Amino acid sequence: MADAAPARAAGRSSAFGSRYEDWKEAPDERWRQRFQNPRILNLIAVLDGTPVAMAGGMLGERIELISMWVAPEARGAGVADALIRAVEAWTAPLAPELWLSVMPENATAIATYARNGFEHVDETGDPLPHGPGHELLMRKLLDRSGRS
Ligand SMILES: CC(C)(COP(=O)(O)OP(=O)(O)OC[C@H]1O[C@@H](n2cnc3c(N)ncnc32)[C@H](O)[C@@H]1OP(=O)(O)O)[C@@H](O)C(=O)NCCC(=O)NCCS
């Protein structure tokens, strides 16, 4: 995705723009900036007391869903759906739509996003970090009727 997650299990190129290896030696200041940035939402999902997933939102020209990762043992249980709903709730008072970018070969993630109402956008995403091609862009128009 556009902003990278420090997720060890994310693999080299099918999910994220950067890898755990890119962050594990990062100075404290870089981590602090990442987690104290008021324009970035950081979420952790906890199952039976154990953190099993993460996701976030990033406020820029658009608001993007970022850093979606669910531990393998927690997949297939709707954890991603719950995180997406939480990022949507954070976004709705701020913007009418939520964007994301996803690697074109990441069929599982694309299916999860499509099931949650995201649609492909006919716009070229960022170049892939490790080869030819571009990220796919998806967007969801949010229901803002219930926002306070
Ligand atoms: C994409 C991802 C976030 C989906 O998370 P999730 O909580 O498993 O999402 P869902 O519960 O909606 O499951 C997604 C699909 O994968 C299937 N699935 C994936 N792994 C599974 C597992 N270990 N056991 C059972 N089902 C699994 C689910 O059945 C579901 O299929 P369906 O849509 O046909 O029902 C997760 O697979 C993941 O973290 N992948 C690696 C990181 C990644 O690609 N992040 C996205 C970057 S854009």
TrEMBL record:
Superkingdom field: Bacteria
InterPro entries for the chain: Acyl_CoA_acyltransferase, Bact_Acetyltransf, GNAT_dom
All residue ranges annotated as the N-acetyltransferase domain in the record: 2-143
Signal peptide start and end residues: none
Swiss-Prot/TrEMBL keywords: Acyltransferase, Transferase
Keyword match Methyltransferase: no
Pfam family of the protein (one): Acetyltransf_1
Gene Ontology molecular function, alphabetical: acyltransferase activity, transferring groups other than amino-acyl groups
Protein's recorded name: N-acetyltransferase domain-containing protein
Species classification: Bacteria, Bacillati, Actinomycetota, Actinomycetes, Micrococcales
